[in-house]
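[job 4471] stage=fold_predict status=RUNNING
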Amino acid sequence: MKLRNKLLFWITPVVILAIACLGYVSLALVERIVFNQTTATMQIATKQSAAEIEQWFETRQVMLTAIATDFEVEKYQPDDPRFPAMFHLMAERFSGYFNYIFIGFENKRMLTTRSVPLPEGFDPTTRPWFKDVQKKRDFIITEPYSDRLTGNLVTTIAVPVATPTPGVLAIDIDLNDMMALSKKAMFRVEAEVFLISSNNTVLYSTNETIESRGLHLGTIDYAPLPLYTRFANEEMRSFYQIERANIKYTVLFSPIPSTNWHIAVAIPTSVLYAEQQNLMARIVAIALLAVLIVFAIIYWIINKITRPLAQLAATAQQLEAGDMNVRFHASESYEAIYLAQRLDKMRTRLLGSIEEKDALLEETIAQSQENETLCRQTKRLNEDLFAAYREQSVLYTQTIQALSDSVETKDRYTYGHSNR
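[job 4471] inference complete, writing structure tokens
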């Protein structure tokens, strides 16, 4: 395996693992940040709705107090003939804030601007709103109750009137008038808003699948609602997570101080995580893009590091194939260039040595051929000399024989001895 491939094989998984770990940690952090931001938005919407309802009640309290103060300053008596006209004048003056107004006195006299006449023998001193004001001597908001004429849930806002004959000035508020204020807590269409009274009565609900208005929370079979009963035990926190039918809900609460009511918002937790999931998808896409970019950078760096070695290796292969004229080339780094220069010098020296050896070998071969020629010539000379020697030997023998024959012929004493 090439060095470049080895480096890619080892470095790439390490980098991908590091990016994956960083992405996992970042994902958990982003998940918490997004969830906190979403729930913070939810809390802001809930608190804003509660604050507007609180201001709504305070505005009517101020108006009732102003009317009561005028009555106190004028020291009106229930039987004062001027009082009905003044009472209706005040009602018209503030008609944009309530439908009708009524006042009851301790002498059981009662006056109202409502078009429907009071029942015969109606005694205001027996009503809860009158008793509560006389007891507290302060502004009160009653628990909601069903109006005897409309059947709608209403609540009574009442203030004491310190006239010579003490009385209680009050208005009835139809809870339908507060729907728009409650709905402002619906920061998303999937949210469900509940307006809860101090005795855990559902005053208003945006959940149209249940008929909950006017019912006690304990009688409603709806997942988030049983939590609201903890208001009575003063254990309620502002934020809860619950689960029903394998669906998780996030529930937030915000109090309405003047009434001791609460705005409650329930929303499936999956809705809160929807934006987070979209963000997760974007993070994953960015992580994949980062992996590709990092891989490209790693490949470029590794290629830049290994290319000089690849060039040297290619030159070495050419040398091995017998191409002695090839030169070592390298780039990118000082070390590789220096190594290529040294190798090229070594190649030049080696080539020079080979050329010297080739010249010496050629000279040796030439000398060997010359010696071989001399050997052949010497051999032929020896053969010629040996032939001449044999010829001389024959001639010498013949000469001796002839000489012997000549002597024997001439000397009778030696005749025939030569043959012996």
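[job 4471] summary: DSSP finds seven helices and eleven strands in the chain.
[job 4471] exit 0
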